[in-house]
Structure formats: C-alpha cells, structure tokens
Amino acid sequence: MRIPPVLMLVAAVSLSFIAARIDPLASSSVELQVLGALIAIVGSATALAGVLAFRRQRTTVDPRYPERARALVADGIYRWTRNPMYVGFVCVGIGAAVALGSLLALAGPAALALYLDRVQIPAEERALQERFGQSFHSYVLSVRRWLGRRN
C-alpha cells in the first residue's frame, strides 16, 4: 500500500511537535513563529503551484498512481523543480520546526525529505520513465529533483 505523501507530512509535523516538547533547548519566540509561518506559507504556495499546474494539464495529482498521468508537466514551477509539491511539504515541515524553536523538531521534515527522496520519488520516476520515455529522460536531465535547472 502506498502512503499518501500528505499523510507523511502530517506525521512529520507531528514528529516535530513531539521532538520540540522533549527538547530541553527549545525556545520559541514571536520572531521565530513569524519566520516559521512565512516559511510554511511559501511551502504551501509552492505545493499549490504544483497542484494547479497538474490541474491545467488535466493530469492526476494523486502521487500514489503515477501511471495514471496523462501529461508530463514541465512548465511553470516544474521548470525549477521536478517535485514542487514535495518541496512545499518539506518547507511546511521546516516552518513548523522553526516556529517551535527547536533543533530537534527538524527531525520531522528531515525524515519526510528522506522518505520522499528514497521511497516516494524513485517509485514515481520509474512509472513516469515507463510512461513518457525520452521526454521524461530529457526533463530529468534539465531539471533537478528538488530545486534548480541543470542547464
């Protein structure tokens, strides 16, 4: 069974809250809360931009079934990251950790990024390679998995 990444985000943020509660050095402030909120807002906007790009192309946003993709989306935000929804999720987790004022709370978004990078994304990329062949391969060569263009 494939776990929906949004549930992994909820688990990551929950882990951050637990870690912050046991962190003897945790010390939040209004400034950290504002900064954390801003990071989370940027993350949410990044994820939303990815969803909207998929909707414009009328392709599935459900990452559990990448084989259902009708189109390879490579424009808009997808020119800068192959995974804007996941970049956004990790930013939301980082924002929560910053707002909590705890270095231990970064364990949540770190675990999320590791899961996405090692489990979720490779499975999706295999399915997209099968579905879109050379087009996907060319896309991989031009846009990094997380952030940035290659050329």
According to DSSP, the number of beta strands is: 0
Biggest sheet character: none
Annotation field: number of helices = 4
String of helices and strands: HHHH
Low-confidence runs of at least 5 consecutive residues: none
Strand content: under 5%
Give helix % range: 55-70%
Mean pLDDT: 93
Global structural class? mainly alpha
Overall 3D form: elongated
Through-space gap between termini? 37 Å
Radius of gyration: 16 Å
Give the SSE map:
Elements: H1 5-22, H2 30-56, H3 84-100, H4 107-142
Considering the chains and any ligands shown, give keywords for the structure:
single chain; about 150 residues; mainly alpha; 4 helices; about 65% helix
How would you concisely characterize the structure shown here?
The protein has 151 residues and is mainly α. The chain is 65% helix and 0% strand. The mean pLDDT is 93.
